[in-house]
Write a structure and sequence with these properties.
Blueprint (H helix, E strand, L loop, with lengths): L6 H45 L3 H6 L2 H11 E6 L21 E8 L2 E12 L4 E8 L6 E8 L13 H5 L7 E2 L4 E2 L3 E2 L16 E2 L6 H29 L4
Parallel strand pairs: 8-9
Antiparallel strand pairs: 1-2, 2-3, 3-4, 4-5, 6-7
Helix pairs in contact: 1-3
Length: 243
């Protein structure tokens, strides 16, 4: 028998308690995993729909109906670095390192109403995650949604605010006159103070005191719009008037 006051008894007792607690936590975590994965899927679908301009519809739906709305409105697929569809792979199976990129197509009555794809990049303090949506022309921004970051509340954290995200609607990512990609940028301060004419189509108002976060978003958009551009080149070419 162990002496309850001995060092070895106390050590073994603590070890057993730790093992039991670890087992209990593992069982609880495993038991909750399906619910956690479902919640993550719903949150992902919600942000895709918000970027696609369906924010009001999302707010009216309870979580159980988000999946139904998503299935009705969105076609999910994967493309490669050449802008070609990769058959047999869904977005949650895509491996970016292998040149596989998720793409979500918004459809209404069989007609394409927009395209959505995930974006991510470094802000000031954290990695920022979101979704970017383009209009069917592959030129105009339809919307943007940021859903995960660790930026400063009240400063860089304002990227989650509706007013900031609405700034992107209607902006351009492609210069039709010059036939060149021109990713939208986040300005330092208000755009009207520094940009004029057609340049205003390619820039959005920045957030006061959050220049580094804005720079991060600019770099993020530049990177991902170039990644997806081979696909949208085909979209633009398909809509070009025949001579």
């Amino acid at each position: 028998m162990f002496n309850k006051n001995s060092t070895s008894y106390i050590f073994i007792f603590a070890l057993v308690i730790c093992a039991l607690c670890s087992l209990a936590l593992a069982l609880v975590s495993e038991g909750l995993r399906p619910r956690r994965e479902m919640n993550e899927a719903v949150e992902r679908q919600k942000n895709i729909l918000k970027a696609a301009g369906l924010a009001d519809s999302v707010r009216k739906e309870v979580s159980a109906d988000i999946a139904v709305l998503f299935a009705e409105k969105i076609e999910a697929l994967v493309i490669d670095a050449k802008g070609e569809r990769v058959p047999g792979i869904l977005p949650d199976q895509a491996v970016l390192e292998n040149g596989q990129y998720p793409l979500y197509i918004l459809k209404e009555a069989g007609e394409i109403q927009g395209y959505v794809f995930p974006i991510s990049g470094k802000g000031l303090w954290s990695t920022i995650y979101g979704y970017l949506a383009l209009e069917p022309d592959g030129v105009t921004l339809k919307g943007i949604s940021f859903y995960k970051h660790g930026e400063t509340p009240g400063l860089g954290g304002e990227i989650e605010a509706r007013w900031f995200q609405q700034n992107f609607q209607g902006k351009k990512i492609y210069d039709v006159a010059r036939q060149t990609l021109r990713p939208v940028r986040v300005a330092k301060g208000r755009t009207g103070d520094r940009y004029h004419g057609e340049d205003l189509e390619f820039v959005v108002d920045g957030i006061s005191g959050a220049t580094m976060t804005g720079n991060g978003i600019t770099a993020m958009l530049d990177y991902w719009l170039r990644v997806y551009d081979p696909y949208f080149q085909k979209v633009r070419q398909s809509q070009a008037p025949s001579l």
